[in-house]
Write a structure and sequence with these properties.
Layout lengths: L8 H19 L9 E10 L19 E10 L2 E5 L16 E3 L2 E3 L3 H6 L10 E3 L18 E5 H7 L22 E4 L4 E2 L6 E5 L8 E7 L3 E5 L22 H18 L2 E3 L4 H5 L10
Parallel strand pairs: 3-6, 6-7, 7-8, 12-13
Antiparallel strand pairs: 1-2, 1-5, 2-3, 4-5, 9-10, 10-11, 11-12
Amino acid sequence: MCSRKILGPSLLAVLACLTLTTFLVSQTSPKPPKSVRLYVFDNGVIKGLDPATFHFKKEDLATTDMVVCSYLIVHPKGTLMWDSGAIPDADLKPDGSPVTQERFTATETLKSQLAALGYTPKDITYFGLSHYHVDHIANANDFAGSTWLVQAPERDAMFAEKGGAPVAQRAKYIALKDSKTKILNGKDYDVFGDGTVVIKAAYGHTPGHQVVFLKLAKTGPILLAGDLYHYQEERNTDKTPTFEFDRDQSLASRAAIEAFIKKTGAQLLIEHDLAHFNQLNKAPRYYE
């Protein structure tokens, strides 16, 4: 004859506590790294582009296709999400099959890529856009709880009643209007105060286009160029897109950033360049 012991109230309480603790640990964001990390997210591709829009002929380019990407920068003191894709997560399919909207095609949601690293939008300390164009803003509203880092002329254009960003796309970032916001005025902004993550103005492509300089302990300095250029072949030329807000301002910004790159030895990451993107480590791998 065998007997069974029923767990006593005290042991049940201990087990319940352990279960709750395990759950809470699983819900917390990852432990801060010892030095800055850069994660690269894949937000799809852009196809069917006319190279003449960028003052090129098809034979001048390795491919006319572009990539859409975004970045998570993780610092010991917090996180910065940079850009947010072209197709909203809500429009993508759970099984990862491709979704196409206009010229954009994507498979993975931004939030699923964040989740694979242990983060949710609520864990993001700062949010920034290189600029307000439609291929960068798709999931901006998800980061309305973060502190928004934006150049003054860019924010003005994003919410202008006339002559600013297209009204039709504002729904994708409207929540930022009420976010805690740090307005930048063209000067370098040291996000975490130690020189490892610095936002630099690069006006011209849009009224307040901006780039990010990173000082990584092992990889070395990197500059995330936004749409300062679109193709590698565009660099070291005076070719700019036909839709540039201010061509002269863009060329001046390029000259200033190129001088900065020469001074610092930074690697330039052209956000849309497909060949360059294919060589990069993608999340969950990272640069540090």
